[in-house]
Write a structure and sequence with these properties.
alpha+beta, 6 helices, single chain, about 55% helix, three-stranded antiparallel β-sheet
């Protein structure tokens, strides 16, 4: 996080109560996809007794980044505290940690409900069939175990199917293409990271 953003957190101390800070955090979460509308901005500006609307933006950016870290990285109270630099007042740290932890579970459940979670491959086993049949080509019987890691419900699925030699060859060609594409994407991502590191 840009270190200069932290300097705007003390603006929260201008609010009249803990409930005001709670309202601000809830409003930011509620509008995480759309951004605050003018009415919400006006309410928050009045809560913080700010003369200029432009003074609000750096504070909101800082709070949104804190919320994202808490929700998507699922960090605990001690880890949240480690995010704050020393210049952030201890009482402000305690208030934000208290409120972020209060809503963390609820917000993570919101994310899980709105997120399509695809199962991941847990194990692959196979066996041969039709080996002893003279007039039938042998086939491989594949058994895939899939794990669904949804936060709402976690379960294991099992899928069985058979592959003849020609089908298996086409499948291996497709898998080879997928491997190459994943390797290319990984190389590009590493290149971007190196460029960003050099820029910093």
């Amino acid at each position: 996080m840009d270190h200069s953003l932290w300097s705007h957190l003390p603006l929260l101390l201008r609010s009249n109560s803990k409930d005001s800070v709670e309202y601000i955090l809830q409003a930011l979460w509620r509008t995480r996809k759309t951004g605050l509308d003018p009415a919400d901005r006006q309410i928050i500006q009045e809560m913080l007794q700010l003369q200029n609307d432009s003074d609000l933006d750096p504070l909101l950016v800082c709070l949104r980044m804190l919320i994202r870290r808490c929700v998507y990285e699922n960090i605990n109270g001690e880890e949240i505290q480690n995010l704050f630099p020393d210049e952030v007042l201890p009482e402000l740290q305690r208030l934000l940690i208290l409120l972020l932890q209060k809503f963390q579970r609820e917000w993570r459940e919101d994310v899980a409900k709105n997120q399509a979670t695809l199962p991941r491959l847990k194990a692959v086993t196979w066996d041969m069939a039709n080996q002893d049949t003279e007039f039938t080509d042998p086939v491989a019987v594949m058994n895939l175990k899939l794990q669904s890691d949804s936060q709402i419900q976690s379960k294991e699925l099992e899928v069985k199917f058979q592959l003849a030699k020609d089908t298996l060859e086409r499948m291996l060609e497709s898998m080879s293409c997928i491997r190459d594409q994943l390797s290319n994407v990984g190389d590009k991502s590493n290149g971007h990271l190196s460029q960003e590191a050099n820029a910093v």
